[in-house]
Amino acid sequence: MREVFRVVFLLGLVLAGMQPAHAAELAVTNARIVAAPDAEPIEHGTVLVRDGRIVAVGKTAAIAIPANAEILDAAGGTLVAGFWNSHVHLMAPPLDRASAHPGDVLSERLSSAYLRWGFTTIFDIASPPGNAIALRTRIAAGEVEGPHILTVDMPFFPRDGKPVYVPDELGGWNARLAEVANPEDAAARARRQLEQGADGLKLFGGAIVGGEVGVLPMDLDVARAVVEVAHAAGRRVFVHPTNADGLAVAIDSGADVLAHTAPQAGPWPEALVQRMVGDDMALVPTLALFEVEMRKENVPEAILAQAIGTTKQQVAAFAAAGGTVLFGTDAGYVDAYDTSIELRLMHEAGMDWRRILESLTTAPAAYFGHAQRKGRIAEGLDADLVVLHNDPADGVDAFADVRYTLRGGRLVYRAATGD
């Protein structure tokens, strides 16, 4: 299965690399370079970029910088590869109507929501049909400035299982159309979405419908039908688990990515974690989601503490077992774009700065089939780069303190003077 994913995604690398025009030559100098999570830092380093690709990495004294190259002084900051946010939703205004708004309006929102936090690649895991693909097209055409976008397009809800928190109307789309009745319909829509440009698919293994039902699990045969179509195309499947039943749907269907931890499922025992890791599943913790949303609902502190404790245990157990952890915020569903809380909670769950950097860079690039172009600082790779003001080894909050963001060798975010 790993080989299938690798081959299919290699065929798509040309599309994956589409991005706006960039400066011919640029040198990021005076940087502390951490080329990959397992790499030793290069002090007083320089990265040389030509035509959007990295052509040299090393000590400044060892790199010949062309006389006409643009110089970007990192001022001693830490230089890392561009970040991935593996759980966002392009369904909050104005990003919910990508074809309707002027480019500058969309660019401003993408900058404040993602580029400002170092995200050069985002994975939209449910938004109005065609919306993320339209936005990606406008970015590729140079009409809009933003990150590289991957998407699952429209999600798959169980029959009569539209979550209670999803509006009936969203971005001009009737959300109930995401419900799927049987395996045949599910497989047909899965094929259609992939043919139209989706990069993966998203199931609601456990949909919160409220009332006496509470959480409605997806029919396992429906989930398996979607997974089968996605895997045949070399694509990954995300699952929203919610509780133990939804988690079972994710595992038993052969799906790939848990889009959240699952506080309602209780602590994860070692045998369950070993099965998930053995099946090459990945986890997007979204720890901050539960803290932010539960505080918004004025949940008693004792209950909040128990839920956060459970989600941390799940992340800690999964990471300790060698599972693939992917950074994600659920931004666009929650109006919380600052990554500081998520970073803190992941660290409290036992992930050190190197493991968090992995979740932001090499892990998603490899898991989604883009390691040949993204995720590290190395010759030949895309010049998706982030300069941090400080050293994350001194505190993981440094990952939220971005000085510069570059996509394809082009400066797309610069912190205000004095930041």
How is this structure best described in words?
It is a single chain. The chain is α/β, with parallel strands linked by helices and 419 residues long. The chain is built from 13 helices and 20 strands. The protein has helices at 2-11, 13-16, 103-113, 131-140, 183-195, 220-232, 244-253, 270-278, 287-296, 301-320, 340-348, 353-360, 362-367, and strands at residues 25-33, 42-50, 53-59, 70-73, 78-81, 83-88, 119-124, 148-151, 169-170, 173-174, 200-204, 206-210, 214-217, 236-240, 257-258, 282-283, 324-325, 385-388, 402-407, 410-414. Strands 1, 2, 3, 4, 5, 18, 19 and 20 form an eight-stranded mixed sheet that branches. A hairpin with a 2-residue loop joins strand 19 and strand 20 (410-414). Helix 9 runs antiparallel to helix 10. The longest helix has 20 residues, at 301-320. The protein is globular and about 70 Å long. Residues 4-22 have low confidence and may be disordered.
Task: Based on Cα principal axes, name the global outline.
Answer: globular
Helix percent band: 25-40%
**Number of β-strand runs:** 20
Strand content: 15-25%
Cα-based radius of gyration, to the nearest Å: 21 Å
Low-confidence stretches: 4-22
How far apart, in Å, are the first and last alpha carbons? Answer: 46 Å
Derived structural class: alpha/beta
Largest sheet entry:
8 strands, mixed
Helix tally equals 13
Average pLDDT across residues?
91
